[in-house]
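User: Thanks for the earlier help. One more: Gustatory receptor. Can you show the sequence and predicted structure together?

Assistant: Of course, both are below.
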Amino acid sequence: MLLYTTVILCCIGGSMFIQLWQLRNPGSQEGRFSDEVILVMAFCSAVGFLQLKFCIPGQDSAMQSTSAMLMDRDMLPKYVDLWLKRSRWSSWEAAFLWFLSVAAETAVVLWSSGRDESDSRQAAGRLLAFAVAAGTYSALSLYPLHISNAQAAMIDHYSSSFVERSADYCKLRQDWDKIQAILRRSAQSLTPCLLMLTLTPVIVVKLCAFELLLASECDARRMLLELLPKMIVHLGILRGLCRIGEVIGNRNRLTVFLNSLLLGDGFDEEASRLILFIERSQAGFYMFDAKVGFSAMSKVAYVIIAGLLALLSQAVHLE
């Protein structure tokens, strides 16, 4: 694991060095905006990755503690099949978005680069740096998505186990205590990394806005074209934010589902107490002691979309 961590950090550091090397010439404006965006993505990915792997001597890192909670010997066999099914599909989505972004970046680089040998080397270095930065960012955004898939799978399995083991309310209450503890502790471990991933597309949009405002002679269409591959990569974190909102939705629907079962089978006082306990537990995904729902996560997407529309209108105005 230490070897993998070292290799990943070296790759990120290499991509950041390439971008800083290409930005060293203040007179070179061709592709300069793309280099700045790739540098921001690489830096944010490195910070998020270090947050997951950093650990105080004698304590586990955020990734280790989260994995230990999800790999609980009693809970894991109950939801692992559903978790793997969802995570497999999420992995394919992330791989497809990464491939699509690299293909789009390749097309942009080939279209904008010249035929000189120095331009070709610079374009190859930019493309390599983007592939590394985009791959690291995609993998980093995939990790919270896998955690959210596990949390949603726990709640879904609990609703089905309530039907199969409706008389064993003591065991069901113990299972729910474990589920809500896992939900809170895993969310607490992921909060700094998730915050960095969420701020990255916002920083990129703000950077583009500043470039358009400060550079009156810039090629606005070229800048928006260079921004397109980067926005494709950021669709992965938006997908993860929507899945986090789904965790809250599954918990809210759980009590409704259990109440419908209770009404169908006749009134059961012990089952009613369990449902009331689940409802008052307020289990879900918490960031900085605040419960995060789909509406809160969608606001991040609204900010990014609004920023892109503002950039588009500014580009049209400059043209």
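User: Great, one quick takeaway?

Assistant: Residues 113 and 225 are 13 Å apart (CA to CA).
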